[in-house]
Design a protein that fits this description.
Layout: H1 2-12, E1 20-23, E2 28-31, H2 40-67, H3 72-80, H4 99-112, H5 114-134, H6 137-143, E3 154-157, E4 173-177, E5 180-191, E6 198-204, E7 214-220, E8 226-228, E9 242-253, E10 257-258, H7 264-300, E11 302-303, E12 306-307, H8 312-340, H9 346-371, H10 382-390, H11 399-417
Parallel strand pairs: 3-6
Antiparallel strand pairs: 1-2, 4-5, 5-9, 6-7, 7-10, 8-9, 11-12
C-alpha cells in the first residue's frame, strides 16, 4: 500500500491539462478534461482508488454498517494514498490535484463503502476547502497541514435544528469579547462530529444584517464550552458519526475568524457549490455498486432453466440502471470540468447532484427488485446501498433545493440573452 501511494503521488505531481472541447450549455468551450476518456493520471488515480475500495473497503463495508464503526484504519490508509487532501497544494502536504480527480476518487471510494465516501467528502469539501480558499497563511499552516495525512479529520457546522435548508437563518451567535469570540448555539447533523479535531462553524455576528451578518470561524476540538450530542442512529452511512455540536460560551481566539466578518454566508454557499460535485460523485458510486450487484446476481441466479439475466424484464432494468449511471457520471464530470476551467459551475454542480442522487436511489431500488428476497436481507449489499443512497438526496442541499438552484440559474441565463 505504501509503495502504491508513493508511486501515485509521484505521478500526480506531473498532472497536466490537455485542452479538449465539448459542447457546453450555449457554446463549444475548451475544457481541461475530455468526457470521452480520462487522462493517464486520472486513470491511474481511478485504478488506485478502485483497488483500494475492492480490497480494503468492500469486504468490511457490511460490518462497518452493522457495527456503526468508524473506519479509522482505512481513513489513515486513504491519507497515505493522498486522498485526504486531494486538492490541497503540496506546499501544505496535499496531493495538489484537480476537481476531476476529487470526483473520480469520491465515486470509487463510495462504490466500495458509501459511509467512507461521506467521511472523505466532509473532510475534503467541507473542512479543508473553505480554509484553503478563505483562510490566511497562519490558519492554513495550523488547520490544514496537520490534517492532510488521515490521522486527523475536520467537520463543518452549518445546519441547525431549525434551519436545514435555510442556511441564512443561523441562530448560533458569536460576539467579540476582548481577544476572543464567544459562541453560543447548536449545530445539527454534523458528519465526523465525534472524530474531528477542528470544525468550520457559522454563527450570526450581526442579526440586523440577516444573512450578511453571518461569519465563519475555525473551532479547534476539544475546547471548553463545546460539547457533543448523542451519536445519531441513522438509516444509512452508519459508519460515520453524526451528532450535534453544542456551544455554551465557547471562547475561541479572535484570529480564528475565517475570512472577514459577515463573509460567512458567502463562504458557506461557495463551499456547498463545490461540495455538491463530491456528493454527485458519491451518488454515481452508489448507483454503480447497485448495478454491479444486480448484474452479478442476475448472471448467477437461475430460474426456469436459465440465468435470470436472459429475461427481458431483468435486461430492461439493467439497461435503465446503466443509463442512470452513465448520464449522471457525465454530468458530474462536466461540473468538475467547469470548476477546473474557472467557469461558473453552480448550475452544473446542482444538476449533477440532482441526477446522481436520484440515480443512486433508483438503482438501489431496482437492484433489490432484481435480487428479490435476497435483496431484502443483509447477506447481500443491495439493502445497504438502498439505505445509503437516500441521504444523497438530502445533505448538502435537498433535491428540491437543487431544482430551485437549477431553475434560478436557468432563468438568469435566459434574462441575460434577452
Amino acid at each position: 500500500m505504501a509503495a502504491a501511494a508513493k508511486a501515485f503521488q509521484k505521478v500526480s505531481r506531473q498532472l497536466f491539462r490537455s485542452k479538449v472541447c465539448f459542447l457546453g450549455s450555449s457554446s463549444s468551450i475548451c475544457k481541461a478534461h475530455s468526457l470521452a476518456s480520462l487522462s493517464e493520471t486520472h486513470e491511474m488515480l481511478r485504478k488506485t482508488c478502485r483497488d483500494f475500495a475492492d480490497n480494503e473497503l468492500a469486504p468490511i463495508a457490511g460490518d462497518l454498517d452493522k457495527e456503526h464503526r468508524y473506519p479509522k484504519e482505512q481513513v489513515k490508509m486513504m491519507g497515505d494514498l493522498g486522498l485526504m487532501a486531494l486538492q490541497v497544494p503540496d506546499t501544505y502536504g496535499g496531493s495538489d490535484l484537480d476537481t476531476m480527480s476529487y470526483a473520480i476518487a469520491m465515486e470509487e471510494i463510495s462504490r466500495g463503502c458509501a459511509a467512507t465516501g461521506t467521511i472523505l467528502s466532509a473532510h475534503n469539501s467541507l473542512y479543508l476547502s473553505p480554509i484553503m480558499e478563505f483562510g490566511n497563511e497562519e490558519q492554513k499552516q495550523k488547520y490544514i497541514s496537520p490534517f492532510v495525512d488521515g490521522s486527523r479529520v475536520g467537520c463543518f457546522g452549518l445546519s441547525e435544528p431549525g434551519n436545514g435548508s435555510d442556511a441564512g437563518a443561523a441562530s448560533t451567535t458569536a460576539h467579540l469579547d476582548g481577544d476572543h469570540w464567544v459562541l453560543n448555539g447548536t449545530k445539527a447533523w454534523i458528519t465526523n462530529g465525534y472524530e474531528s479535531e477542528a470544525s468550520v462553524v457559522f454563527a450570526t455576528t450581526d442579526r440586523n444584517l440577516k444573512h450578511k451578518g453571518i461569519s465563519a470561524f475555525i473551532v479547534p476540538k476539544p475546547i471548553d464550552g463545546l460539547s457533543l450530542g448523542k451519536k445519531e442512529d441513522k438509516l444509512g452511512i452508519r459508519a460515520t458519526s453524526t451528532t450535534y455540536l453544542i456551544f455554551e460560551d465557547c471562547r475561541i481566539p479572535k484570529e480564528n475568524l475565517l475570512g472577514e466578518p459577515g463573509f460567512g454566508f458567502k463562504i458557506a454557499m461557495t463551499t456547498l457549490d463545490a461540495g455538491r460535485i463530491g456528493i454527485a460523485a458519491q451518488g454515481v458510486g452508489i448507483a454503480q455498486a447497485a448495478l454491479d450487484c444486480a448484474i452479478d446476481y442476475a448472471a448467477k441466479r437461475e430460474a426456469f432453466g436459465a440465468p435470470i439475466s436472459k429475461m427481458q424484464m431483468i435486461q430492461s432494468k439493467l439497461a435503465d440502471m446503466e443509463v442512470k449511471v452513465q448520464s449522471s457520471r457525465l454530468l458530474t464530470w462536466q461540473a468538475a470540468a467547469f470548476k477546473d476551467a474557472g467557469l461558473n459551475f453552480t448550475k452544473e454542480a446542482a444538476m449533477a447532484k440532482l441526477a446522481a442522487s436520484e440515480a443512486a436511489t433508483f438503482n438501489a431500488h431496482q437492484a433489490i427488485q432484481v435480487l428479490g428476497g435476497m435483496g431484502y436481507v443483509t447477506d447481500m449489499p443491495a439493502e445497504r446501498h438502498y439505505r445509503d443512497a437516500r441521504i444523497t438526496e438530502i445533505y448538502e442541499g435537498t433535491s428540491e433545493i437543487q431544482r430551485l438552484v437549477i431553475a434560478g440559474q436557468l432563468l438568469k441565463e435566459f434574462s441575460q440573452k434577452v
